[in-house]
C-alpha cells in the first residue's frame, strides 16, 4: 500500500503579500482523522515529483476533510502548487512531527512566537486555546512580518484578541509604510512580564527560532519549556 494519497485542490486566495491560503480536500482517503496535533506538517508533491514539507494551518478535526495550508511564493514546488487549477490532484502523506504539546500548556501562561509563514503552524494552537480558553493562563502571540502587508490571517487577529489571545504584531522593515505599531523582531518585544513559569511554542526561520530561544533563556524560561513543532 502506497504511503501517498491523492487529494484535490479546492480553494486558494491571497492571504498576504507573498502568501496564499490554499486548501486540499482529503475526503475519501485514509488521511481523514490523521491530523492529531496542532503544528504537525505533511509532505506534498505533484504526482511523481519531488516532495516538500508544509505545516497544516487548520486545526485537527477527527472527521474533517479539508486541510488548509499557507503557501509562500518561494521555491519551485510552492510555485508549482500555486499554479494548479482548482480540482487538480496533489499527492499527500500522513501528518508528521509531534506538533505542539497542548496538554503541557494547560494551567500555564503560553507564549506563541511566529514569523512570516510560521504562523501557519501556530494558528491551530490558537484554535485549540479559543475552544478551551479557561484552561490556560495568559496567552500572548508575538507575530513578526517583514512589512505591514505581510501578515497572514489579518482578518482573524481581532477575533483572536476578543477570545483572550493578546496579539503583538511587529514589522522588521516598515520602510515608508506609515506603520504605527511595533518595529523589529519578535524576540525584542518580550516586555517586563514574569516568564519563569511560562511555556513557549515557536515557529519560524531557524535564526529567528534560535534568537527567541536565547532571549527566553535569558528571561528564565528553561529549554524544557520551549517547544518547536519538529
UniProtKB/TrEMBL annotation:
Superkingdom, taxonomy of origin: Bacteria
InterPro entries documented for this protein: Cyt_c3_hydrogenase_gsu, FAD-bd_FR_type, Flavoprot_Pyr_Nucl_cyt_Rdtase, FNR_nucleotide-bd, OxRdtase_FAD/NAD-bd, Riboflavin_synthase-like_b-brl
Domain FAD-binding FR-type: 2-102
Name listed for the protein in its UniProt record: FAD-binding FR-type domain-containing protein
Annotated organism of origin: Corallococcus caeni
Amino acid at each position: 500500500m502506497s504511503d501517498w494519497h491523492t487529494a484535490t485542490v479546492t480553494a486558494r486566495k491571497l492571504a498576504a503579500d507573498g502568501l496564499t491560503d490554499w486548501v486540499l480536500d482529503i475526503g475519501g482517503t485514509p488521511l481523514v482523522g490523521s491530523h492529531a496535533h496542532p503544528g504537525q506538517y505533511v509532505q506534498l508533491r505533484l504526482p511523481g515529483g519531488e516532495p516538500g514539507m508544509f505545516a497544516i494551518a487548520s486545526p485537527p478535526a477527527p472527521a474533517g476533510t479539508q486541510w488548509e495550508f499557507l503557501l509562500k511564493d518561494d521555491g519551485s514546488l510552492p510555485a508549482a502548487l500555486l499554479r494548479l487549477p482548482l480540482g487538480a490532484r496533489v499527492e499527500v502523506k500522513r501528518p508528521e512531527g509531534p506538533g505542539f504539546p497542548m496538554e503541557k500548556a494547560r494551567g500555564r501562561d503560553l507564549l506563541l512566537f511566529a514569523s512570516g509563514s510560521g504562523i501557519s503552524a501556530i494558528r491551530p494552537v490558537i484554535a485549540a486555546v479559543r475552544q478551551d480558553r479557561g484552561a490556560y493562563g495568559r496567552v500572548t502571540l508575538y507575530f513578526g512580518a517583514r512589512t505591514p502587508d505581510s501578515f497572514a490571517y489579518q482578518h482573524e487577529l481581532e477575533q483572536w484578541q476578543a477570545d483572550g489571545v493578546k496579539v503583538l504584531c511587529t514589522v522588521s522593515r516598515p520602510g515608508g509604510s506609515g506603520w504605527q505599531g511595533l518595529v523589529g523582531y519578535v524576540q525584542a518585544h518580550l516586555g517586563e512580564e514574569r516568564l519563569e513559569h511560562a511555556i513557549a511554542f515557536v515557529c519560524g526561520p531557524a535564526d529567528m527560532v534560535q534568537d527567541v530561544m536565547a532571549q527566553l533563556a535569558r528571561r528564565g524560561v528553561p529549554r524544557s519549556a520551549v517547544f518547536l513543532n519538529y
